[in-house]
Structure formats: structure tokens, C-alpha cells
Amino acid sequence: MRLGSLSQNSQETFPADLTQKLSLNVKITRPKTQNPSKSVKQGSDFYPGKGISSLSKWSHLIRSYLSQGASREALLAYSGFRRKGVYLLGLAPLVLKACAALSTVKHGKALHAESVKNGVDFDVMIGTSLVCLYAKCGDVVDSRKVFDYMPERNVVTWNAMICGYLKNGDGKSAVLLFEKMSIRTAVTWIEMIDGFAKSGDTGAARHFFDDVPSELRNVVTWTVMVDGYASNGEMEAAREVFEGMPERNFFAWSSMISGYCKKGNVGEARAIFDRIPVRNLVNWNSLISGYAQNGFSEEVLEAFGKMQAEGFEPDEVTIASVLSACSQLGLLDAGKKVHHMINRKGIKLNHFVLNGLVDMYAKCGDLANARLIFEGMPHRNCACWNSMISGFAVHGQSREALEFFGRMEDSHERPDEITFLSVLSACAHGGFVSAGLEIFSSIEKYGLIRGIKHYGCLIDLLGRAGRIKEAYDLIKRMPMKPNDAVWGALLGACRVHLDMEMADRVVEEIAKADPNISPGCDSQYVLLSNIYASSDRWEKAEKMRMRTVKKGFQKTPGCSSIMLGNTNE
Questions:
Q1: Is 178 left (phi over 0), alpha (psi -120 to 50) or beta?
Q2: Which of 3, 204, 349, 545 is buried most, with the most CB atoms less than 10 Å from its CB?
Q3: DSSP state letter for 1
Q4: Is 259 buried (19+), middle (13-18) or exposed (0-12) by CB count in 10 A?
Q5: CB of 131 within 8 A of CB of 105?
């Protein structure tokens, strides 16, 4: 692929004026006498006397940034190097890798143009890096153009192109390319297995797994197949392959643990964990995050303590799960200790950790600290906005919840279904009827579908405001069948406003739906009994109480939690 074929739509230059002297709209051509082999050599020695030492120094710096996931810093470092007017062939693959990690295809094209200008784009390493760049940025067409243009390709180049097709959902082209390969490595087979498994086609993945030559079948090949089944929820097939592994690595164990947790089978996940001969942090994180995802908050804290006792230091993944457990249990003191640990150990404050801190403080009622962390976040996603809005709503600060919802809209962060549930709840508890109706109407503007919970919030809002007839009419117009929570919200309003007529009408509606009410859902009958008792209709109140007894309903016992020292009671 020549520069002219990719530069027509490229207007953005490399970060920090890296390519100021390069016009991407100008087609660059080589002298006719130049051949590929000479162009690579000339590119390698483009600045004699500076190459080896400069390459070593800058390569080490950029590699260091990339190893830490700091791709932007790697690009800025390269920009500073290029301001000196020096171009080194050895740095190009590293910088292209950084561009791919950030999906900055325009910057990658700028570097591609530089490679053409300096006569080094025939180099197999640069060509392979360009194939990866375009594929990772979703531009498979340009990726294939680079691949076809390369005069020399190695097996890594072929693997990169196959991987690009698979990551972009083109399994057919990947198979055609795979069949043309004269030499295949273990990585080739792994890419095929992993690519088809991630697309959900575990049948094709298993076909390639079964065809792997014995001399190329290694622990990674087995692990990728196990993970493919586990990621798709096919735990029986995953277990079959797992048990047949001649040896297992940490990732195979973790894939099984995560797979069982995603299916809700936490007991089997723990059984697998207990079989691990030597554990590492990845294994612990799989178990702890699995507990957190399934609501086993106390087990999260227990496992966290055991992990530390075995000498493992937590990372961002561990901390995010532990903060979630503290949120669910309402353990503010425990959450603060985790926060101090983050600062003391220098744990990276990525968006998962920051969201976890905001959510923990908000759910535990420490809205001042939640807001302090929120306001200091460089980038805010929907999850952290939801945590703040929900925190304000739950703790009675409805006006602040509405204020933050407005700020969220102004920031162009797209609200989701949870956002609207939280802000509608805030409107209901704060009595903001007009705002609630307006917000409810705006849900579809964001391409979201109103669910029964959204309708329930609006019915609660109207009922609390005494607009019971409107609430009832809304129930009758709902596109879905009302559930216990919806009728319960309306009955609660009837009780507060002593609307006996509407209560009797609701009784009739509940009687029609009675076969679908599960045992133990006695809240409607208790409410009805209380409504009748409040209006001195003792006979009906007693009938309701007797009905609950005959149906076998039992009052759900209440519970509370307090902290005594370091013990949860």
C-alpha cells in the first residue's frame, strides 16, 4: 500500500507536531533506481553516529512506558526524540504498537508516511507492525494492503494478518489465509482457536484445537481452548478439556474459576481454587472478583484477608472487588482502610479503583468523600455518575441528585437505564413531580427502553404526590404486565392518602393476578390490611390477615448489621 492510497483522509498530525514537515496529502515516491533491500539498509543507518546509542536509550524508555500501559507517554517520548530531526528504524515498531494500543490510526498513518519517506517501509518488522496497527484499529482493508505490498513476510506477519481478520469478525478470510501458510507455528494455531472461540464459534475453535500437530500442542494451546469454552459458558466442555491437560498454568485455573463464577456456581469455583497446587495473584483475583460479582461480599473480605496472609500484595483488580464488597455490606470503616491501603501501597488509581471508591463512599453515606474523589477524577464514565446520583437519591439529597444528572447531560456522558432509575427515585423521594415526568419522557431520547422498574418509579412518584388516579391509569397503559412492586407502590400511596375506593380497585386487580403471586410475597395483603385498619374497617382488615394465614404467607423477619471492633455482627 502506497502513501497516496491511505493519506487522502488523513489530516491529523502526530502528537506534539511530530510530523510538521510531512504533508500527508502529498504522495511521496522513491527514485526509480532504489530497491527494497537497499532502502532498508539506508533507513537503518539514516543518521550515522547516532543510531546505536540513541536507539538503545530511546528504545528502553519507550519499552518501559509500553510495559506500564502508558502508551500516550510513549508517543510523547518519541515526539521529543523526533524534534531533534533524527529517525531511527528500530523505534518505529514500538511507536506503532503504542498507536495500536490507543487506536490512534491517524498518528499511525503519519508514522507510516515517515517510513515511506525514509525508505524503510519494506522492513519486515515495520510492515508487520503496520498490519497489526490497522487491524487493531478496525481497518482490515488497509491492513491487508500493507500485507500484500510487503516484498518479504515471515510467519509473524502471517499470524498478525490472521489475528486481524479474526478480531474484526472475518473468520472466512482468516481460514483462507491460514490454508495458504506454508509454515505454521504454535502461535498460528492459538490465534485460530482463540479467534473463533471469542467470536462464539466454539465448534470451529475445537476443530482447530483437535487438528493441532502434537509437536505444536503446548500448555497455551490447551489453555486457550479451556478459556474459549469457559468464556462462552460451556463449562462441561471446558471441564473436559481442563481435566485432560497434561500440565496446567495459572491462566487455565483462573479461566475455570471465572467461568464457574459467571454461571453462578461459586461452590464449584471454590473447589477448583482449592485444587491449585501453587497459587498466584491472578488466581486469587479470579476467586475474589467471582465472589463480588455473585454478591458473596463477606466471602470477598475473608478471601482478601487470606490472600494477604499468604504474602500476596493486592493490585487494582483486587481492590475494585474488595471496595464493591464494602459497598454492599455498608462497611464504611473497612472501606476507609482499603482507601488508606491504596495510598500506602501506591496502587494505581485506574477508573475501576476510582469508581469503586466513589461507589463505596456514596453507598455508605459519606457523600462528602465520594464527591471529593469524583470531582478529582480526570475522566468520568457512566458508572461513577450513577454512583453519585444513586448515593444522593438513597440518602435523601434529591436536589443534588438532579443537579448531578443535569451535569452529566451537559458533560455529554450518555446516561443508561440505571441512571434513570436513580434519578427517578430521587424525584419520587423529593417530590419533584414535573422534573420526574420530564425525565421519564426523555428516556427514549437516548435510545433506551423504559422497563418495568422505570414505570414503578414513576407510579411511586405520582402516588406520593397524591395523583393516584394518574398512577392507576399509567399502570393500565403500561406495555408490560404490572408486577408486585408496581401494585405495592400504588397500594402504599392509597394507604398514605386513605383512598379506599382505589384500594378496593387494586384488590380486584391483584385478585385477577393472584395465581402469579409467589408465596412469601405478602406485602400487598399486609398493606391492604393496614389500609382497612387505618380507616376503621376492621372486618375487612381481619379478612385480609386471615387470607395471608390461609395462603401460608409469613412475615419476612427484619435484620440489621453493626460493626463491633473488627467483627461484623
A1: alpha
A2: 3
A3: -
A4: buried
A5: no
